[in-house]
Target: DNA-binding transcriptional regulator, GntR family
Amino acid sequence: MTQKPNPLSSIKISGPIPAHLARAVIEETLRNAILDGRLPCGTAMRQQELASLFGVSRMPVREALRQLEAQSLLHVVTHKGAVVAPLIEDNSAETYELRMLLESEALRLSTPFLTDADIAEADAYINALEQEKDYAEIGRLNRLFHMVLYGKAPNQRLLKLVEHGLNEEERFLRFNLEAMGLGETSQEDHRELLRLVAQKKIEESILTLRNHLMRGMEVITTYLNGLEAAATKDAQ
Model:
């Protein structure tokens, strides 16, 4: 019987890791591996195995796993420990409703402090999105665009919650965007949102953002329902 390869074997460590950098290096390395799919959903993150892989004690591994759990990239499962979280939860509609509340408030707080340089950076991300064909990169650019608009919000806890939601969406888009066909509509929304933000039209910006997220929720929900229906039909 052929043994399945261990997903952790895809992670290559070059040389010893300085003790004071261990937690950050482990967190960033695992985060990248989760986002690019090398560590698939459900992969167990065992502390001792990771400590051996990185050549460190279990303490920085434990701290890194806590950070990744806080970013919604890991879930703690009874009797199994930390595992890579699903690409998107079954309650995707509720998740998007929460995102609307959080991102609307982040946009409201951030917009008055955005500079011309911030607007130019967001515009550059839109231009890059219009040219990009790689779906992994599209997910990353989408996250960066939104975070530029929210980034001047003074509430750091709010920004962390917002970024967690965008991390989840980035992972989902990375593996499903081609099948959903969101490209052109998303950029039209982004350009309108940026135009309103640049003019400091806060309420209009929030309405446009909410409509953008609502369309995203509808497309993803329809897509997931289609997958579920197909799976049910195959099982019959």
Summary: The domain at 92-235 is CATH 1.20.120.530 (Four Helix Bundle (Hemerythrin (Met), subunit A)). The longest strand covers residues 74-77. The beta strands are 74-77, 81-84. The mean pLDDT is 85.
